[in-house]
Amino acid sequence: MKRKEFLGRLIGEVTNFLLEGNPLRLVVSLHQEDDGAHISFFDDQMRSEEEIKRIYNSLNPQKSRPELAEYYGLMAGHDMAWDARLKLIGWQIKHASVENSDSGLRIDLWLGSDAFKSEHFTLDKKEKRK
Predict the structure, then answer these.
(1) How would you list the strands of the sheet with 105-112, edge to edge?
(2) Could you read off the pLDDT of 37-49 as tens digits, one per residue?
(3) Reported pTM
């Protein structure tokens, strides 16, 4: 699967999930490098801690299988529960973070090779700036 198709499917799946909440605002930010990418999603729907934990756990399964990303990507879009669809995304990425921002939910996805350093591509306000 080409990188453009892969990123498009991931963005489409997370966007579809967020649109289920009928947000008035939805923003997607993409930062690409040769060996990785960082995608951030922002909406205006605050979530409970329980829901954030459920989304986080779905996007960060115990075992990541990026070598099967194309197979999982082909399964995306099929009629299944959102938890299962988010797990399909989680098996294709390196890591995800999920939290409420000042105005709604924020989801960050990191993809890439082992050489890709996700800490260089974060919007996290809590990190220490030099």
Answers:
(1) 26-33, 36-43, 105-112, 95-100
(2) 899 999 999 999 9
(3) 0.75
